[in-house]
Design a protein that fits this description.
Length: 51
Amino acid sequence: MLVNSLGQQFGLLSGGCLEGNLLPFIRQAWQKNKSILKTFDFDDSCASQRQ
């Protein structure tokens, strides 16, 4: 999945559910100019961030 500086998304990771959860972390990484590593679990409905 690619996301440009305008927030446009290209490609999918999970068919649509995970992508929406990733956007806040992508914006945070851009603002801080640092990489962020997050782990997500997949359940029957949607991906949720691990605590």
